[in-house]
């Protein structure tokens, strides 16, 4: 469920919001940032697939040494659909692209979706002046500790915390300095206490948010 990343192995570390098949948009964003695939690391908050046009290309990022991701609810829906042959929920939420692939592409995509079972739900990066936690939807406890048990479904699906935050009833999560989440499309990055919501709706025509951890001003 958890994965630690040693920041000392990378020149710069970036976190990107929900991709949803926006592969070309990601590459353009990385080029503008001068991203170096031999020295820099990109961390995804999950939801690599569905709704966009380049889903297979986004899944293939999982094979790159400079890329890692937490599992999002769209990866979870795809995994569940392919393991049970009940594709209704996935297809209703953007999974139709899979049916439009040719046989070879479909086998390739299915293998990469199966690989998503090995993705962590939570990524932990301890840096000199900050301790960063990345999850798709939420860290569903009020105090963070590496390795403690949490409900996987809440980690990939829950909007309870952001809803409380938006109503002015939120609070910090203790145990780390920064928490980065995606899952909920927003017009802009929202910052509540030590929680940052960075799905800015790229697949719906919004911006694709890219945050450089090694250059955070806070």
Automatic annotation (TrEMBL):
Domain (Serine/threonine specific protein phosphatases): residue spans on this chain: 70-75
A Pfam family of this chain: Metallophos
Any one of the GO CC terms: cytoplasm
InterPro entries: Ap4A_hydrolase, Calcineurin-like_PHP, Metallo-depent_PP-like, Ser/Thr-sp_prot-phosphatase
GO molecular-function terms, A-Z: bis(5'-nucleosyl)-tetraphosphatase (symmetrical) activity; phosphatase activity
Signal peptide location: none
Cited Gene3D superfamilies: 3.60.21.10
Gene Ontology terms: biological process: RNA decapping
Full protein name: Serine/threonine-protein phosphatase
Source organism (scientific name): Acerihabitans arboris
UniProt lineage: Bacteria, Pseudomonadati, Pseudomonadota, Gammaproteobacteria, Enterobacterales
